[in-house]
């Protein structure tokens, strides 16, 4: 499958960008001397251009990108610093920037019509927020994201720990897929109904950091921290590192108990991130493939680890793997308020709901959920394809589907009553994944995007400590645009 400047700020847009900055210190952050946060200034310009995704003799691909590069420039700061990012819109349509996984104040979250007016063509918006958590994050538009992200508008945002993990080298891989024609151009079939009803816009060309990859040079004995970001609209990756044993040390930017991934495969749904520690233990001069095995029968070589002739050391170093925790409030599950969320719709959705309802009735339990699912089957109407609690999101403004009392612990019991996997993302918060299909999770991992398998029930827990109206949606972007989206209010 592998083939498969600081812009000028206007007074109006400066004031618009400043509107939410008064709230920029709601969340705790480490401060420097005299209580002042170090400020780091960055500038992004979204604009059309051309970029070489495919190797020669293929031509360049027309893309939309930040600062004329795919992915956009890596924004890298230290935990506790303040980011001030001016975003200029050089497109012919409105845009915004969402800082995915970063716990920003609500006014800085980048959701058009919900947290800010969209940035008009030729205008600039100023985002400002504190880097509260260390970790691997990324940025992308939330205006018509199914096309703007799909044309290349995204980039990594890395927040370094005060004491980073000791490794020989740190590398970021932003992985994406593209639907390209024979002329190397992106096919102009965004928002197609087939993609919306099925698994989303899965492409035919996979890139790492904007290039179709060939090999990645390594040395025997080297230890690498590999930050993986899935920027694809819909493709899910399950990476097999072939004879290597990567250790997961962070998920969605948040530290986790170091562990080897289940079945040896590193799974990333769209928008998810995984930090790995990879010890290179292969023979000098050898090559080892990294293979994507998520889609059965469609496995392919993503890249090869190419060992040089000179080893760095004979064996792996004996350095600690634990990352320091971020300042997240621990939910009290025993005292938490419980909420039920059910995702429905899509191709074969009716059949799945009916099967699940029959199964729960036959099992003698789950009558409340069964009745709710039958009620939702009757509610689904209109243009929507995907539904959250029986409602398909339509239009730019949404009434809250849930209101979470601020400062309290909450558990969301989420059921994927569809035939397709869904990476579910909550803005403004991280949450603990506490159970899957009633079984406690091994690591109670902190995440902001959780991948749900078809027919799976997942419980997440959080403290609602970041006030505002927050988007809650599937990050298969075609699913989001066709209804699988809601708003959760924290008040």
UniProtKB/TrEMBL annotation:
CDD domains linked to this entry: CuRO_1_CumA_like, CuRO_2_CumA_like, CuRO_3_CumA_like
GO molecular function, one term: copper ion binding
Pfam families listed in its UniProt record: Cu-oxidase, Cu-oxidase_2, Cu-oxidase_3
Domain Plastocyanin-like, first and last residues per copy: 59-162, 170-263, 394-490
Record keyword Metal-binding present: yes
Superkingdom of the organism of origin: Bacteria
Keyword Oxidoreductase part of the UniProt annotation: yes
Keywords assigned: Metal-binding, Oxidoreductase
PANTHER family: MULTI-COPPER OXIDASE (PTHR11709), MULTICOPPER OXIDASE LPR1 (PTHR11709:SF2)
Protein name: Multicopper oxidase domain-containing protein
Organism: Nitratireductor arenosus
């Amino acid at each position: 499958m592998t083939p498969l400047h600081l812009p000028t700020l206007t007074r109006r847009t400066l004031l618009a960008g400043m509107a939410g900055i008064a709230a920029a210190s709601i969340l705790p952050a480490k401060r420097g001397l005299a209580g002042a946060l170090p400020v780091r200034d960055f500038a992004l310009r979204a604009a059309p251009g051309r970029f070489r995704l495919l190797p020669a003799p293929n031509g360049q691909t027309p893309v939309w990108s930040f600062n004329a590069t795919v992915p956009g420039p890596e924004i890298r700061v230290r935990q506790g610093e303040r980011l001030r990012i001016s975003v200029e819109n050089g497109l012919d349509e409105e845009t915004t920037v969402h800082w995915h996984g970063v716990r920003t104040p609500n006014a800085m979250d980048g959701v058009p019509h919900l947290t800010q007016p969209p940035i008009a063509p030729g205008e600039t918006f100023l985002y400002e927020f504190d880097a509260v958590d260390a970790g691997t994050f990324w940025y992308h538009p939330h205006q018509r994201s199914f096309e703007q992200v799909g044309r290349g508008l995204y980039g990594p945002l890395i927040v370094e720990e005060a004491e980073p993990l000791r490794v020989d080298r740190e590398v970021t891989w932003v992985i994406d897929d593209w639907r390209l024609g024979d002329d190397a151009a992106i096919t102009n079939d965004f928002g197609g109904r087939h993609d919306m009803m099925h698994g989303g816009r899965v492409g035919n060309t996979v890139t790492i950091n904007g290039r179709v990859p060939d090999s990645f040079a390594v040395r025997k004995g080297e230890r690498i921290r590999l930050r993986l970001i899935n920027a694809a609209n819909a493709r899910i990756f399950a990476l097999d590192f072939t004879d290597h044993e990567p250790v997961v040390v962070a998920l969605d930017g948040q530290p986790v108990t170091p562990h080897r991934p289940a079945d040896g495969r590193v799974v990333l749904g769209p928008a998810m991130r995984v930090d790995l520690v990879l010890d290179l233990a292969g023979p000098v001069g050898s090559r080892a493939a990294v293979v994507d095995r998520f889609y059965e029968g469609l496995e392919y070589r993503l890249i090869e680890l190419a060992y040089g002739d000179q080893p760095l050391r004979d064996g792996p170093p004996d350095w600690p793997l634990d990352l320091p925790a971020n300042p997240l409030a621990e939910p009290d599950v025993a005292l938490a308020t419980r909420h039920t969320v059910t995702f429905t719709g899509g191709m074969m959705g009716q059949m799945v709901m009916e099967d699940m309802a029959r199964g729960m009735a036959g099992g003698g339990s789950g009558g409340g959920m069964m009745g709710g699912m039958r009620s939702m089957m009757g509610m689904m109407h209109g243009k929507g394809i995907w539904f959250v609690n029986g409602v398909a999101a339509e239009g730019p403004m949404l009434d809250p589907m849930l209101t979470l009392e601020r400062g309290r612990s909450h558990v969301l019991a989420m059921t994927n009553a569809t035939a397709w996997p869904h990476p579910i993302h909550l803005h403004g918060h991280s949450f603990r994944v506490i159970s899957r299909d009633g079984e406690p999770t091994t690591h109670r991992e902190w995440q902001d995007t959780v991948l749900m398998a078809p027919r799976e029930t997942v419980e997440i827990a959080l403290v609602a400590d970041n006030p505002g109206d927050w988007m809650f949606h599937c990050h298969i972007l075609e699913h989001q645009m066709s209804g699988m989206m809601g708003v959760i209010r924290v008040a």
